[in-house]
Amino acid sequence: MFTDSHCHLSFPPLSEQLPAIRAAMQAAQVGRALCICTTMEEFPAVHALALRYDNFWCSVGVHPDNEGVAEPTVQELVERAALPRVVAIGETGLDYYGMEDRKGGRSIADLEWQRERFRTHIRAARAAARPLVIHTRSASADTLAILREEGEDGGSASAGGVFHCFTETAAVARAALDLGYYISFSGIITFKNAQDLRDIAAFVPLERMLIETDSPYLAPVPYRGKTNTPAYVPEVARQIAAVRGLAVEAVAEATERNFERLFPQVVAA
Ligand SMILES: [Zn+2]
Ligand SMILES: [Zn+2]
Question: Which one-letter DSSP state was computed for residue 228?
Fold first, then answer.
């Protein structure tokens, strides 16, 4: 069996296709999915998925790209993290990609609100004892620095978590591992131009990696260009298995155990 550790099933068109997606997941031996929250406004819909289906779980958090949405407090995040089937805080982190166009020509200094929001999530994760789902894009130095400043050093007080949809360098992967974090690979690892990422998948310890789709985005080869769904997550495992010279079952087994170690509530329930 496989677990999709990061998907957005509350986003259209996935939200309108749930019965078909669930049937495709079953056919593809994808037994579980972690449904990721990106705004406080969205949380009730994401949480409803996890409450309705016994193999769905969810997070609570506000994505660093979202502006003009409710800004969460530590207390609001902690309260939601205590609800049934909420197993993670995020996705949170920093996104400095496209300062010229996506960010309207602002500077990194102008994005202090992102860093403050990230710190809020880290504090909530530590208070709630829930791992963080980290999104970092073109911002890895600040992401790592803020995690360290907030005490995330892999010690017993650390919330820990996962660097999701990993696309950074080998040095960033090593730094994240040193902080006790997991690395999650998405369908990007199957893309023709992603050899650097395949090289990283070759050295990240098998017991520290997760697999994900980040659906509806980033469908893996051979489905590239289609709407992605959790049913495609085995393609990520297949690519990791090829890189490491393993059977896909070995990668499936390891990433299942890793998911359960990082999010122990999924086993206890
Ligand atoms: Zn993300
Ligand atoms: Zn995401």
Answer: P
- Residue from 33, 132, 50, 34 nearest 84 by CA: 50
CATH code where residue 137 lies = 3.20.20.140
**Sign of the CA dihedral with 193 first, then 196, 197, and 203 last:** positive
Peptide bond between residue 207 and the one before it cis (omega within 30 degrees of 0): no
Contact between 61 and 54 under an 8 Å Cβ cutoff? The reply is no
pLDDT at 268: 73
Ligand nearest to the CA of 215: 2
- Find the 115 Cα to ligand 1 centroid distance in Å: 16
Separation of CA 133 and ligand 2 centre (Å): 9
Question: Got the DSSP string for 175-223?
Answer: HHHHTT-EEEE-GGGGSTT-HHHHHHHHHS-GGGEEE---BTS-PPTTS
CA of 63 to the centre of ligand 1 (A): 7
Nearest ligand to the CA atom of 5: 2
Q: How far is the CA of 164 from the centre of ligand 1 (A)?
A: 6
Number of domains in the chain: 1
Ligand 1 is an ion; its neighbours by CB within 5 Å are 91, 135
What is the block-wise mean pLDDT of the chain (269 residues), using blocks of 10 residues?
A: 98 95 98 98 98 97 97 98 98 93 88 97 98 97 98 96 97 98 98 97 98 96 94 98 98 98 89
- DSSP secondary-structure letter at 39? S
pLDDT attached to residue 269: 58
Give 119's contacts (C-beta < 8 A, 6+ positions apart).
Answer: 146, 150
User: Which ligand is closest in space to the CA of residue 213?
Assistant: 2
- Taking the centre of ligand 2 as the mean of its atom positions, its distance from the CA of residue 92, in whole angstroms, is 9
Residue 180 domain boundaries: 2-268
